C-alpha cells in the first residue's frame, strides 16, 4: 500500500475512533461536562491525564530540542516530570477533597472573594490561550506534512475534529477519547524508537540502546555522536552549554511548578471518586508519562546521528542508497575528513523524505557555494580548526536548516521504516496535539460558563442553561484558538514555555497558600497573583523588545541589556512565583487574616478525618 494511502487510513481510523467514543460518552449534565461525573477510575484517569499532559510539545518538539541541545535538553525531562511529583504530593488530593469543579472555584471559595475567583479566571484564560497556540501550530504542522494539505487547512480540520468530540462530550467525552489518544500516541512514539534502536545498536529498548555500543562495534553510540557533532563544529552532545547554572536551575523550577499549576491538568483530579484516587491517578499518570519521557533522550540522539549520517558520508556511518543508515564496524572506525569536497550529499540525490519535508517549509536548503551539495555544519563555531577546514574545502556556510519540530515526525522516514510505522507516527502526532487542545478548551469553557456566568454574572442560571453556555463557550474558544494558530503572535515560538511560566507565577502559589497557609487572606492572594502575572508578562514582552526603551538596559543587571541575572524569559516563571509568594505574604501581614471559619476549612481539607484520635490529639 502506498505511503499516502496508509497515512490516510491510519489517521482516518483514529479520528473515527475518537468521534465514536465522544458520541458514546457525551455529557448530559454539568457534572459530566465539567468533571465526567466524578466517577473515573484512577488508572483510566492516569492514562487520560498523560494524554492531556503530553501535548504536541512533548510528542513533537521535546526530542527535537534534546537532539539540538544534547544533555542540556534534560531540563525538560526533569522539569516536566518533576512537576507531577509536586502535583501528586502537594495539590491533587487536597483539591479533590475540597470537592469543587474548577481551579477558580477553589480559589474563590478558599479566599472568600469573588474578586479572587475572577482574577484566577483571568490568569487561567491567559495561560490556556497562550498554551493552545502551540497545540494548534502542532496540528497544522502535522496535517500539512502527512495529509498533503496546507498548514491553514490542517488547522481548520483540527478545529472541526475537536469541535465534534469536545463540545458535545465535555469532560466525559474528552476523558475516554484521551485514553484512546494516549494508546495511539504512545505506540506511535515507541514503535519507531524500537526499530531505530535495534537498527543502530542491536538493542530494541531505546533506553538501553542509548548507552550501548553501535551494532557490530566497540564504540558507544554517544561517543560516536560526540565525535560526529564536534567534527562538524557543534558543541559536544554529552555536555550542556545552555546558559548559566542559575538560568538552568530557574528554568527547571519554572517547568516544575508550572506543571503543578496548569489548570487543564489539575482539573483531571476532580474527576475521580475519592481523595485517595486523586493521588493514585497522579502515580499512574507518571508511569504512563515515563514510557515516553524515558524514550525521548534516545530518540533525540539517534535522530541526530541518522540526520547527520544521511547528509554527510564522512561521519563514519554508511548510507543506504535511499538515505537511511546502515552501521558497519569499518565505517564507524573510519576517520574521514568531514570537510572533504565530496563528503556532503549531492542535493539532486537527496532522499525522498527530504523532498517531502521541504514542501512544508520546515526543512530548507540554500546552495551558498554553488556546488550543488548539502553542507551541514556549525558555521558559527568558535573552533578555528573546524572553521579553517570548512573554508579550505570551499564551504561558505551552513546550507541546511532543519526545524527541531520535524525530528520525531521525520525520524521513521529517515530510518527507512515501513509505511505503516510512518502512518502511525502521523496519527500519534495528531493525537498528542488534539488531546491537549481539548483539555485546554474545556478549561476555558468552564472558566467562562461556570466561574464567570454562574459565579458572577447570573448565579441563578439553570443547569441546562449552564451546560448550553459551556458548549457555546467551548465552540467560541475553538474559533479563537484556530485564529491564533493561523495568526500566531510574535512570541509564538516560546508559547509553551511562557504558559508554564505564567502558571508557575500565578496559579501554583495561590493553590499552595490556599492549602498550606490557614491565615492567608483574600487581599494577599489577589495581590500575589496580579504581581506574579504582571512581572512575568512584563519581562517576557520586554525581552522581546516590547516596552523596551532603545538605548537603555532593562534593569541593567548581570547578563547585559534586557536581562535579569542572565535569566531567559522561559525561566522567568520562577522569579514570578517568588514575587507572588513575597507580595502575598507582605500584603497578608498588613491586612486582616482569613476568618476563623476559613481557617477551620483549610484545616479540615489538609488534615485527614480522625487524625490524632488514637492519641487523644485534636
Give an overview in words.
The chain contains 25 helices and 6 strands. The protein is globular, with a radius of gyration of 25 Å. The protein has 618 residues and is mainly alpha-helical. Helix 4 packs across helix 19 (419-457), helix 7 packs antiparallel against helix 19 and helix 14 crosses helix 18.
Index terms:
two-stranded antiparallel sheet, 618 residues, 2 domains, mainly alpha, 25 helices, Sodium/glucose cotransporter, two-stranded antiparallel ribbon, globular
Give the end-to-end Cα distance, rounded to a whole number of Å. 71 Å
Q: What CATH architecture label of the largest domain applies? A: Up-down Bundle
Helix content class: 55-70%
The residue-averaged pLDDT reads 81
Looking at the structure, the CATH topology of the largest domain is Sodium/glucose cotransporter
Helix count, DSSP H or I runs of 4 or more residues:
25
The major sheet is characterized as:
2 strands, antiparallel
Count of discrete structural domains: 2
Shape: globular
Q: Approximately how much beta-strand content do the residues carry?
A: under 5%
How many strands?
6
Unreliable segments (pLDDT under 50, ≥5 consecutive)? Answer: 545-562, 610-618
CATH homologous superfamily of the largest domain, by name? Sodium/glucose cotransporter
CATH class of the largest domain: Mainly Alpha
**Rg over C-alpha atoms, rounded to the nearest angstrom:** 25 Å
Structural class: mainly alpha
Strand order, sheet with most strands: 1-2
Amino acid at each position: 500500500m502506498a505511503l499516502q494511502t496508509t497515512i490516510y487510513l491510519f489517521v482516518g481510523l483514529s479520528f473515527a475512533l475518537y468521534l465514536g467514543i465522544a458520541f458514546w460518552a457525551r455529557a448530559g449534565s454539568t457534572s459530566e461536562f465539567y468533571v465526567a461525573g466524578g466517577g473515573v477510575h484512577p488508572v483510566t484517569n492516569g492514562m487520560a491525564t498523560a494524554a492531556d499532559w503530553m501535548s504536541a510539545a512533548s510528542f513533537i518538539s521535546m526530542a527535537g530540542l534534546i537532539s539540538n541541545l544534547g544533555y542540556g535538553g534534560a531540563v525538560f525531562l526533569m522539569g516536566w516530570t518533576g512537576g507531577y511529583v509536586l502535583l501528586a504530593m502537594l495539590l491533587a488530593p487536597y483539591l479533590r477533597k475540597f470537592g469543587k469543579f474548577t481551579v477558580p472555584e477553589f480559589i474563590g471559595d478558599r479566599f472568600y472573594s469573588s474578586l479572587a475567583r475572577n482574577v484566577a479566571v483571568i490568569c487561567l484564560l491567559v495561560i490556556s490561550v497562550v498554551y493552545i497556540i502551540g497545540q494548534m501550530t502542532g496540528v497544522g504542522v502535522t496535517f500539512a506534512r502527512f495529509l498533503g494539505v496546507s498548514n491553514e487547512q490542517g488547522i481548520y480540520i483540527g478545529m472541526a475534529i475537536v469541535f465534534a468530540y469536545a463540545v458535545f462530550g465535555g469532560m466525559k467525552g474528552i476523558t475516554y477519547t484521551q485514553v484512546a489518544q494516549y494508546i495511539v500516541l504512545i505506540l506511535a512514539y515507541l514503535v519507531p524508537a524500537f526499530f531505530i534502536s535495534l537498527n543502530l545498536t542491536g538493542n530494541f529498548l531505546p533506553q538501553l540502546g542509548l548507552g550501548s555500543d553501535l551494532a557490530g562495534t566497540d564504540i558507544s553510540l554517544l561517543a560516536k555522536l560526540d565525535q560526529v557533532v564536534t567534527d562538524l563544529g557543534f558543541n559536544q552532545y554529552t555536555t550542556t552549554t545552555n546558559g548559566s547554572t542559575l538560568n538552568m536551575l530557574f528554568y527547571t523550577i519554572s517547568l516544575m511548578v508550572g506543571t503543578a499549576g496548569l489548570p487543564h491538568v489539575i482539573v483531571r483530579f476532580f474527576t475521580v471518586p475519592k481523595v485517595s484516587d486523586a493521588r493514585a491517578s497522579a502515580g499512574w499518570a507518571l508511569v504512563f508519562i515515563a514510557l515516553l519521557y524515558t524514550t525521548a533522550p534516545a530518540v533525540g540522539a539517534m535522530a541526530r546521528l541518522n540526520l547527520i549520517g544521511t547528509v554527510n558520508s564522512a561521519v563514519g556511518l554508511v548510507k543506504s542508497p535511499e538515505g537511511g543508515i546502515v552501521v558497519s564496524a569499518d565505517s564507524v572506525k573510519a576517520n574521514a575528513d568531514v570537510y572533504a569536497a565530496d563528503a556532503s550529499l549531492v542535493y539532486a540525490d537527496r532522499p525522498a523524505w527530504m523532498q517531502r519535508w521541504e514542501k512544508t517549509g520546515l526543512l530548507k536548503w540554500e546552495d551558498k557555494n554553488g556546488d550543488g551539495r548539502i553542507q551541514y555544519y556549525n558555521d558559527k563555531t568558535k573552533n578555528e580548526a573546524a572553521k579553517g577546514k570548512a573554508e579550505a574545502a570551499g564551504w561558505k556556510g551552513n546550507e541546511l536548516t532543519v526545524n527541531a519540530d520535524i525530528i520525531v515526525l521525520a525520524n521513521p522516514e529517515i530510518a527507512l521504516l515501513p509505511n505503516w510505522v510512518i502512518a502511525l507516527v502521523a496519527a500519534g502526532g495528531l493525537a498528542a496535539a488534539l488531546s491537549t487542545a481539548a483539555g485546554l478548551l474545556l478549561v476555558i469553557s468552564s472558566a467562562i460558563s461556570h466561574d464567570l456566568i454562574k459565579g458572577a454574572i447570573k448565579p441563578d442560571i439553570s443547569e441546562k442553561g449552564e451546560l448550553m453556555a459551556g458548549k457555546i463557550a467551548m465552540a467560541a474558544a475553538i474559533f479563537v484558538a484556530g485564529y491564533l494558530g493561523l495568526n500566531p503572535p510574535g512570541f509564538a515560538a516560546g508559547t509553551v514555555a511562557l504558559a508554564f511560566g505564567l502558571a508557575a507565577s500565578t496559579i501554583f502559589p495561590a493553590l499552595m497558600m490556599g492549602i498550606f497557609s490557614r491565615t492567608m487572606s483574600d487581599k494577599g492572594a489577589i495581590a500575589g497573583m496580579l504581581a506574579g502575572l504582571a512581572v512575568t508578562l512584563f519581562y517576557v514582552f520586554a525581552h522581546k523588545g516590547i516596552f523596551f526603551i532603545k538605548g537603555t538596559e532593562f534593569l541593567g543587571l548581570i547578563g547585559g541589556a534586557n536581562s535579569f541575572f542572565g535569566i531567559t524569559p522561559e525561566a522567568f516563571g520562577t522569579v514570578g512565583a517568588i514575587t507572588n509568594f513575597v507580595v502575598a505574604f507582605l500584603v497578608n501581614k498588613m491586612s486582616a487574616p482569613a476568618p476563623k471559619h476559613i481557617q477551620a476549612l483549610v484545616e479540615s481539607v489538609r488534615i485527614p478525618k480522625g487524625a490524632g484520635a488514637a492519641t487523644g490529639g485534636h
